Amino acid sequence: MKSVCLIVQNVYDIDRRVRRKAEALVSAGYSVDVLALAPAHGKGTYTLDSVNVYTVSLGKKRGSLARYFFEYAAFFLWVFVRVLLLMRHRRYVVIDVNTLPDFLIFAVVPARWMGAKLILDMHEITPEFYISKYGIAEDSWLVRLLQFQEKISFDCADYVITINEPIRSLLVRRGLPLAKTIVVMNAADEARFSSSSRAAAFDDRSHAFVMVYHGTLTRIYGLDIAIEAFSMVHEEMPGAELWILGSGPEQGALAGLAQERGLTSKVRLVGQVPSADIPAWLNKCDAGVLPIRRDLFLDFAFPNKLPEFIIMGKPVLMSRLRTIRHYFSEGALSYFEPNNPADLAKQMVRLYKDRGLRARLTARAKQEYAPIRWEVMRQRYLKLVEDLAGSTRPMTESSHTTEMSAAER
Questions:
Q1: Are the C-beta atoms of residues 284 and 210 closer than 8 Å to each other?
Q2: CB 210 within 8 A of CB 243
Q3: Which stretches of 91-191 are DSSP H helices?
Q4: Do domains 3-187+374-399 and 190-370 have the same CATH topology?
Q5: 342-377 CB burial, b ≥16 within 10 A, e <16
Q6: For each of the chain's 409 residues, which pLDDT tens digit applies?
Q7: How far apart are CA 72 and CA 79, in angstroms?
Q8: Full-model pTM
Q9: How far apart are CA 229 and CA 107, in angstroms?
Q10: 222 three-state secondary structure
Q11: Which of 344, 351, 346, 347 is nearest to 227 (CA)?
Q12: Which CATH number fits domain 3-187+374-399: 3.90.76.10, 3.30.930.10, 3.40.50.2000, 3.30.70.120?
């Protein structure tokens, strides 16, 4: 049995992208190890769904650039040593390194000398991430340094995965050879949203119209924009409610904003919900809302939650971001201008009043999602690993189907 190792500086249990890949590899007959951060239960080594997980108790207490550097350096050194020890008896055929940081790929270079092929899965675009998070000038020396380490990182890998076509195009312009990269989208595993999991897990009260957000409550996701928008038009939407599922640093501020706007009975801050219960909550709603702010980094975002709404057959109120517009047309999502509560408010009323529109949006979104659904991405990823493990030439731009943009459709 061939062995594959995945590396991610995150808690494996909650990293849906890495878990999907690891479980796909197991189902394809590989032995799979993961190197990650320790979860809440604190076990150093454990097995989850036939995946062997090795962890380090490092935590994620990021805030300053210095703290980021410390955590990155500590994890880098741990991976360097751990992979060398594991390679003595595991002899991985492929090691899949998941960013951030990009330079984590260099921690496994000795494994290449021992026969492993290296994949770099670039979850984020590092320069844009730091520009967005810290307000660094685009022409600063630090951004140039980040672009340099990005390039030497993807040059070091045997193959590079990006998470969507706009990001791949950006990286190609920055020097990534097109022939050594493919896209594996952040598609949702439809098995998690099967009909058997849709039974209601809570009260059966009926509502005229329910909008739902589920995920982390941070400023970039724009929940304050959603509350402001709802406050403008809630009187035009009798019986409508906004449910916010999740926790995060903005939870208290969002509760305060809802109270200030007189919406405490209409904005429901549910709190953290177990992952297994999400399908039941989504089944209860009439529309999803993803009011992500726009900036240089977020314009490339493709939130995991969007496919989940589409799979569950719910129309989505969506910020008009570059990457989303690449994949979905105006007839698939209820777009509004990012950072614009008034435009979102208009779209809320539009969906509330037109059941037929909701049905048309849902049908079109499912149609346009089909080429990038998880089963397609799963087969693409497994084919790449198979080719690398067999030392054959991996698929190139001409040997796999590139997803059509919304404009091309």
A1: yes
A2: yes
A3: 109-113, 126-134, 141-156, 165-173
A4: yes
A5: ebbbbbbbebbeeeeebeebbebbeebbeebbbebb
A6: 899 999 999 999 989 999 999 999 999 999 999 999 998 777 789 999 999 999 998 766 656 667 778 888 999 999 999 999 999 888 999 999 999 899 999 999 999 999 999 999 998 898 998 888 888 888 899 999 999 999 999 999 999 999 999 999 999 999 999 999 999 998 988 887 765 444 444 444 455 899 999 999 999 999 999 999 999 999 999 999 999 999 999 999 999 999 999 999 999 999 988 888 889 899 989 999 999 999 989 999 999 899 999 999 999 999 999 999 999 999 999 999 999 999 999 999 999 999 999 999 999 999 999 999 999 999 999 999 999 998 555 555 444 445 666 656 5
A7: 11
A8: 0.87
A9: 47
A10: coil
A11: 344
A12: 3.40.50.2000
Question: What is each CA distance from 80 to 6, 45, 62, 106, 404, in whole angstroms?
Answer: 13, 17, 22, 8, 39
Q: Identity (one letter) of the amino acid at 266?
A: K
Token digits for 142? 């630090």
CATH superfamily of 190-370: Glycogen Phosphorylase B; (3.40.50.2000)
* Pick from 28, 227, 204, 3: nearest CA to 114: 3
Domain layout of the chain by residue ranges: 3-187+374-399, 190-370
Tell which residue, 348, 341, 318, has the closest CA to residue 330: 318
